[in-house]
Design goal:
Blueprint lengths: L2 E7 H18 L11 H4 L7 E3 L5 E3 L1 E5 L3 H8 L10 E3 L8 H5 L2 H4 L1 H14 L3 E9 L3 H16 L5 E8 L8 H16 L2 E3 L1 E2 H10 L6 H20 L8 H8 L7 E9 L6 H8 L1 E2 L10 E9 L6 H8 L13 E6 L8 E9 L1 H18 L4 H5 L5 H37 L1
Helix pairs in contact: 1-3, 1-7, 1-10, 7-8, 8-14, 8-16, 9-10, 14-16
The structure holds guanosine-5'-triphosphate and magnesium ion (MG).
């Protein structure tokens, strides 16, 4: 059955997770009590994100956690989405925006209840595919509790794919602690997680502006959920080329630590689209910037809808001199979902493993160094039991990742140049 568990942590993670479930309900034609209203077309693979209860309602397989009650309380008041209240946990303390509270003190106290729910999901699933996690890297609850869970999955030696979907807020952070929190949770994500899809609030705000929407969290979450709906469409519906979490990891992650992906998508309602259009202007870029076309190690193109069944559009995507041929290596692959989105005829999604993430990380590296050189705010973390070694370890892991980005991408380039010269002789 290939089930997936959704985990939303902290304010941002819960908001995004709930919005994603709302859009899943819509995409699978579920009514407001989550019964199926279109049996034929949409039932396929609905069990990927839902468990069916005895009243034929589809309840999402999820877990929501926070250190303050407001987001969970709001979740229970939602009228158009049903989430099992036994899968929602909160405390009354807040984290004061500190990773240490989420990871070590208050957050750690939530772990027993979470593990109990997760173990139940592991036992009752036929063939669990993986876990999708949502949180903001800057939040104390989000980053700290996410790290706790990531460590739990590592200790449990799960053979399932752990896919994080963190929201970064580079350049618009509300506090300096967000820099530290981000570097700490990056340390966990670099070492243990299988895939990370990087979302960035500034990029999401830009999409809002370009589409004449108010730039607020609510609209950002809608855009992010739309992108996730596209990413997961091939897991949930039949198509010509099916996708899956394992396939994604195998195809897009050539070096284990280089697993940070950039998501984009584009709604195509006319037939005469061109690849250049899609690449250059019309994509909704939800993540860090890139420098097309040479900076991709690998990428996935997700096609959804009927127009992609035409032979010419297929050939467009595999043309040898395509802009998307990266360093001469044919490192892309496609997934295709036949069933259209209920609102949009055709959508193209994109997930790329890009060197652009290196520049993005360097900004965090600079900000971290500026703060840590002065030992600014370190006492907040020390009061909760962290020591300075954890700061230096997280920093050096980030530095290592930044330096790994260079050689991996350059080696690809070099090996291609070498082959080409060889071929001429
Ligand atoms: N896209 C988006 N970003 C959000 C949302 N809520 C908060 N953020 C951003 O996430 C960061 C703060 O994280 P929160 O999720 O509020 O923090 P938390 O995980 O609840 O942790 P605490 O610090 O304990 O409150 C800030 O940079 C916010 O701009 C949301 O609903 N959507
Ligand atoms: Mg919060």
């Amino acid at each position: 059955m290939q089930e997936i568990i959704i985990i939303g942590i902290g304010q941002c993670g819960i908001n995004v997770g709930v919005e994603f479930i709302k859009q899943l309900n819509y995409d699978h034609c579920l009514n407001n009590v989550q019964e199926i209203i279109n049996q034929d077309r949409y039932k396929q693979k609905i069990n990927v994100f839902y468990n069916e209860n005895s009243r034929q309602q589809y309840i999402p397989r999820c877990l929501f956690l926070d250190l303050e009650p407001s987001s969970i309380d709001r979740l229970h008041l939602q009228k158009d989405v049903i989430i099992d209240p036994n899968c929602c946990f909160s405390k009354n303390c807040g984290s004061n925006n500190s990773y240490a509270t989420g990871q070590y003190t208050e957050g750690a106290e939530l772990m027993d209840e979470c593990k109990h729910i997760l173990d139940k999901y592991f036992e009752t699933s036929d063939n669990l595919q993986g876990i999708m996690m949502f949180f903001s890297t800057g939040g104390g609850s989000g980053s700290g509790i996410a790290s706790n869970l990531i460590q739990y999955f590592r200790e449990k030696d799960l053979t399932k794919i752990v896919h994080c979907n963190p929201v970064f807020s580079q350049g618009i952070t509300h506090s300096n602690l967000e820099i530290y929190n981000t570097v700490f949770v990056m340390h966990q994500m670099i070492e243990t997680v299988d895939i990370v899809t990087v979302y960035d609030n500034v990029a999401l705000y830009n999409i809002c502006e370009n589409n004449f929407l108010t730039s607020n969290h609510e609209n950002c979450n809608k855009i992010m959920a739309e992108s996730l709906i596209q990413t997961t469409a091939s897991y949930r519906f039949p198509g010509f080329i099916n996708g899956g979490m394992k396939k994604l990891t195998l195809n897009l992650i050539p070096f284990p630590r280089i697993h940070f992906l950039q998501p984009k998508y584009m709604i195509v309602n006319q037939i005469n689209w061109s690849m250049t259009d899609i690449l250059k202007q019309k994509y909704k870029l939800c993540s860090f910037e890139d420098n097309l076309p040479t900076e991709y190690l690998s990428y996935q193109i997700q096609l959804r809808g009927n127009c992609f069944e035409m032979p010419e559009s297929q050939s467009l995507l595999i043309k040898k001199d395509d802009l998307y041929q990266i360093n001469g290596h044919d490192t892309h692959y496609r997934v295709h979902t036949r069933i259209q989105h209920r609102d949009h005829e055709n959508i193209i999604g994109f997930l790329g493993n890009s060197n652009g993430f290196k520049k993005y990380l360097q900004k965090y590296q600079e900000d971290f160094i500026k703060l840590f050189k002065r030992k600014a705010f370190v006492y907040i973390y020390e009061l909760q039991g962290m020591d300075k070694m954890e700061f230096t370890e997280a920093e050096s892991d980030l530095n290592d990742l930044i330096s790994e980005y260079g050689p991996h991408f350059n080696n690809y380039q070099m090996s291609y140049d070498y082959d080409e010269e060889e071929a001429e002789f």
